[in-house]
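FORM 12-B: Structure-to-Sequence Request
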């Protein structure tokens, strides 16, 4: 697995200090980090495809821009998996999907979402396997998918050569 797994630092070893959306300082605030991992082309191990930090205000604003129906479905999905998530995130070093318990190394891609305050993670990250990401994104309305698409293009840097090779489902999930 990748060295950076379960790490709240950037891939380059620096701390996340700014919201990737509004650029305000995150030193003292509660914020979230999402990291997307993709299997290396040679099939061995994973690399970080993208990573970003988002402050609470921006996250709430994004939530308001989603259709009510999609937002409700996303909430219901999380609620329905609450018991599994609680169980699967008990060990901080776990390398399993928080929703299904599947080994992350078995899939082609996975995401991790961290909650961070004062430079310290609040509990273990939520990990989402590619199978679960697909299930989760299938819940979203076309309007919400378009919204995530725009968000992704505006704020997430993926090298163009890489973007062409990607599974089109490898987009932000923003729990
Ligand atoms: Zn922000």
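FORM 12-B RESPONSE
SEQUENCE OUT:
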């Amino acid at each position: 697995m990748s060295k950076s797994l379960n790490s709240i630092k950037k891939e380059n070893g620096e701390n996340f200090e700014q919201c990737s959306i509004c650029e305000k300082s995150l030193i003292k605030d509660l914020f979230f980090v999402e990291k997307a991992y993709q299997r290396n082309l040679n099939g061995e191990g994973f690399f970080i495809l993208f990573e970003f930090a988002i402050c609470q205000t921006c996250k709430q604003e994004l939530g308001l821009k989603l259709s009510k129906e999609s937002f409700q479905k996303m909430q219901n999905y999380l609620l329905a998996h609450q018991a599994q998530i609680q169980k699967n995130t008990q060990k901080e070093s776990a390398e399993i999907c928080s929703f299904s318990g599947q080994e992350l190394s078995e899939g082609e891609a996975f995401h991790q979402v961290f909650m961070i305050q004062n430079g310290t993670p609040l509990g273990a990250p939520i990990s989402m396997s590619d199978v679960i990401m697909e299930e989760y994104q299938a819940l979203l309305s076309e309007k919400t998918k378009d919204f995530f698409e725009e968000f992704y293009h505006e704020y997430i840097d993926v090298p163009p050569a890489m973007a062409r090779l990607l599974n089109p489902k490898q987009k932000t999930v923003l729990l």
